Amino acid sequence: MILLGIDTATNATAVALQRPDGVLAERRDDPSPGSHPGHATRLLEMAAELLGAAGLRWSDIERIAVGLGPGAFTGLRVGIATARGLAQSLSVELVGVSSLRALALAAVREGAIGAPAAGEPGSPDSLLALIDARRGELFAAAYERGGDGSPAELSAAAALAPQALAGMLAGLQRAQPGSPRRWLAVGDGALRHAEHVRAAGVQPAAPDSPLNRVSAAAICALGARAPGAQDPAGVLPDYIRRPDAELGLQGAGAR
After folding, report:
1. 106-125 pLDDT, tens digit each
2. Torsion sign (Cα): 35, 7, 248, 132
3. Does the structural domain 111-211 have CATH classification 3.30.420.40?
4. What pTM, to 2 d.p., does this model score?
5. Of the candidates 211, 227, 201, 80, which has an alpha carbon nearest to the alpha carbon of residue 151?
6. Residue 99 CB contacts under 8 Å (≥ 6 apart), including other chains
7. Contact 8, 96 (CB under 8 A)
8. What topology does CATH give the domain 3-100+214-254?
9. Contact in structure between 87 and 203 (CB atoms under 8 Å)
10. What is the per-residue pLDDT across 22-66, written as a single tens digit (0 to 9) for each?
């Protein structure tokens, strides 16, 4: 299957192309701090570059996978609208996948966490995937390494204050008593709120680690496993919380 993977849940624009032989190529646009994300201007350009380098045409694409977030609302809208438009114009399959799960999958594949109670002493066996939610919050989900080598979800995605991480992890420990879990945190949320992550007893990945970036290659891997195509109209952003603009309108109405 020739599969195009897209993610715009963070400031970065990530695109990957997976060919039937398993060969995969990826392009990223990571804006410098303070710069405007290039989701709207770079996404289609990077996809065209990947197709051209592979000697393929748009019409060769068989499936599109897009990260649903949670993440930056504007970025998600651009990425998902682009994926829906491409799927409809090319008459190809479209599937939506979790951007947090893509973070977790990349970390598991890189061996960043071991199987519970089976890794080296002191090495991480559990993972926090964290995406910056702005407004002083995080989008967070917890995972461990599943028996098949894929991330197994311990807690569903939620928006929470960084100070609430410790309580979240304590709740997980109470739900599954036994040896204390050894946590690793990845994602731009782990970078932005590293102080609170460490205060919760979690080691964040190194600031320059690629594990902090949502990988379009992981989006492709999740998209290839997704069962069947979805109605493009039903592929929607996973906002977790209400968009800022909507909350602003509600606040204005209350006044």
Report:
1. 999 999 998 765 545 568 99
2. negative
3. yes
4. 0.91
5. 211
6. 7, 9, 10, 67, 68, 69, 70, 71, 131, 214, 219
7. no
8. Nucleotidyltransferase; domain 5 (3.30.420)
9. no
10. 889 999 999 998 899 999 999 999 999 999 999 999 999 999 999
